[in-house]
């Protein structure tokens, strides 16, 4: 029920096959087509279609991939392909396939399937029940024409309509004239008519296609009495230029006008649109032609309407005119911005990109295509990258409609972690240009390009001797700190001691807190030097080093002592006391005479008997001042008025003073 043949031209294969072959029909044996005769049937060769469900692969299937039998997977309708413009039916309807051939080596073969038309449609007339009733006056002149609607055949080429014929049981006074290229079909009067002799004619018009299929239209033509003046249009051709494609629906496009020299009913004219067109409508009485669809220059640039003017006399007379409508393009389309690759995360006019800060200069960030469906200046687009802010990106134009965004300098997340880039496109339409923009949000992805940095590289710390170690984890003596400006694991720091035989100190890898693990005696050793390393957790890891020198000093034996009995006191003052009023002076001393252990500092902590507002808690009307005599290990703590005091708001304040020395570890005294 089918046939196929093939030819080979410079390794390009063309296989001819009919449309509408049954599913599973064999098209070609690829093994015989693509392999040389030297390849035996037992040799293992696998044939695969390059794609499965895309056009035109969806129509084909390879059964028995090793045998390479190309078969029909889905029925192919050549006429549908032509109508949908999936192939060029004015020449050949060709479908191209890529075949993967996998044997000892991998090859890609290109074959063309040429779909041949079958005569599977017969000509069809569109009149109801294939019946057409016509009327013509008896005094119609020889050569007068009655235009008919031609038949339709969905086949192409030789299988389409090739001619018309007319048949009748009796002789006819007219002939059939047709022009296949223009789609014209007319009855032409060849003899004078005489209604009194013959009042009507019945005959058949037959449409023939190239495959001996036909369509039949039965025509009843009635001859009416004399209505001898036909309507006459003012013009036979109306040409309308520069009609806007944005013309509102139901707008009156123009008015045609015809006159009839007859009087009464024979001179009454009605207008009729002969085209089967869904975009225009004519008022039969006034001749107003209206637009009833939304015109679109991008879809169709011109229209041709055939208008008939008929009188209402017996034996309707008519005249015909043609309206040619040429549209003008309006700026009704916005520039369209496409990005590549298509799998980039985007939302409407926004796209989010993630770029490594290690990208080299001139790296591709994004490819763009800018188009506008309008014509002329309405479709001419100017596009640019907004450089109102300093950006490390530049726009490179490849063609008038394509470009790339590339890096123009190195990225540094620690300097700028994200950018907002605006790509703008506007056309040159008038009276007002249309524009579009793409908002590109760029997040810079961190790379481990910063080593931890110590806040101090060479540190000296005093440490008291003879401090007993009462805890298996020792006691805290110092906290070293480093910073890493990288992110996440690249910025996480781990501390370690590099000294190979260290047994005196331990360091917390996360906090950098150094603990003493033994009791020190400065007579045995008075200086200890630790080499500390800070490493991040990036890959590869980066690190830096610092040195901490511990100087062993005398034991911090005494806590500070103050001249407050039982370390507790009550102080009184008037609410109208002026700023600077001294409330109390507390004197403290430390019996440790060396500078480190005997030097003191004070920390103040205020609280309230009842819950007050945050404003009252922060606006403490007192100030703590100190005078420090380091040489004599004496500290004076002075409490003075430094604000407004209101007994009705707060009647008392609670103060805890902590007096601490500078020993390592320190000792302290609390005074309330």
From TrEMBL:
SUPFAM superfamilies, per database record: Cadherin-like (SSF49313)
Chief site of localization: membrane
GO molecular function annotations of the record: calcium ion binding
SMART domains to which the protein is assigned, alphabetical: CA
Protein's cellular compartments: Membrane
Keyword Secreted: no
Keywords, ordered alphabetically: Calcium, Cell adhesion, Glycoprotein, Membrane, Repeat, Transmembrane, Transmembrane helix
GO biological process, one term: homophilic cell adhesion via plasma membrane adhesion molecules
UniProt xrefs under PANTHER family: CADHERIN 96CB, ISOFORM D-RELATED, CADHERIN-87A
Record-given protein name: Cadherin domain-containing protein
Organism in which the protein naturally occurs: Adineta ricciae (Rotifer)
